[in-house]
Amino acid sequence: MKPYYYIYSPTKEAPTRRHLTVASAIIEAERLATNNPGINFEILKCIAISCVRKPVNTFFLDED
Asked: Angle at the Cα of 8 (from 6 to 11), degrees rounded to 5?
């Protein structure tokens, strides 16, 4: 599984959409910033996922 990206702003709701490319994430962050002047939007990269299995596992996503 490839890493993916989220757009996050501390003053807005939690991210709801995964972006499969950094280019898509940049477009969305810029769109949100344009529509919300004065609010910062961060592009976050998911690099690993932890889940409860017996035992608890963390697996890392393939790098670009």
From this structure: 160
pLDDT for res 26: 97
> What does the pLDDT read at residue 64?
57
What count of other Cβ atoms lies within 10 Å of the Cβ of residue 29? 20
Mean pLDDT by 10 residues, the chain (64 residues): 91 89 96 95 93 79 73
Q: Are strands 48-51 and 57-60 parallel, antiparallel or unpaired?
A: antiparallel
Task: Report phi then psi at 48, rounded to 5.
Answer: -155, 160
Question: What span, in angstroms and rounded, lies between the C-alpha atoms of 47 and 36?
Answer: 28
Q: Which two tokens stand for residue 3?
A: 């890493």
Residue position matching structure tokens 């969305």? 28
H or E, element range at 34: helix 22-35
